[in-house]
Amino acid sequence: MFGIGGSEIFFIIIIALMLFGSKNIPDIARTLGKGFAQLRHATNEIKNEITKSAEENGLGDLKEMNPLNDLKDINPINDIKESLNPLNDIDLTSDVQKEIDQAKEDIEQMTGPIKRQR
């Protein structure tokens, strides 16, 4: 719960008991509960007013109006990635093999042919 363990919650409860006393904690909890209920009621009222105002202005049901619904089939990021990727047209294995062969030739020119020792 919010990254708080059981011992930390227990410690917070002990501190609250010491600060407020056992007689005041139920009153504080009741006051906090009423405050949260009023906050929830206020947010529901605001939400209802916004919905009512949208319906009056002809916007209809706001749940159906999701601009992302039209974009579900479009995936421009993959298209752009593939078109801008410079490695699509390059055969890396042949380029690497060319570099390896060139390095072998350079070594052979300096030291002679490379032979395995048994």
TrEMBL record:
<keyword id="KW-0472">Membrane</keyword>
<feature type="transmembrane region" description="Helical">
    <location>
        <begin position="6"/>
        <end position="22"/>
    </location>
</feature>
<keyword id="KW-0653">Protein transport</keyword>
<protein>
    <submittedName>
        <fullName>Twin-arginine translocase TatA/TatE family subunit</fullName>
    </submittedName>
</protein>
<keyword id="KW-0811">Translocation</keyword>
<keyword id="KW-0812">Transmembrane</keyword>
<dbReference type="InterPro" id="IPR003369">
    <property type="entry name" value="TatA/B/E"/>
</dbReference>
<keyword id="KW-0813">Transport</keyword>
<dbReference type="Pfam" id="PF02416">
    <property type="entry name" value="TatA_B_E"/>
</dbReference>
<keyword id="KW-1133">Transmembrane helix</keyword>
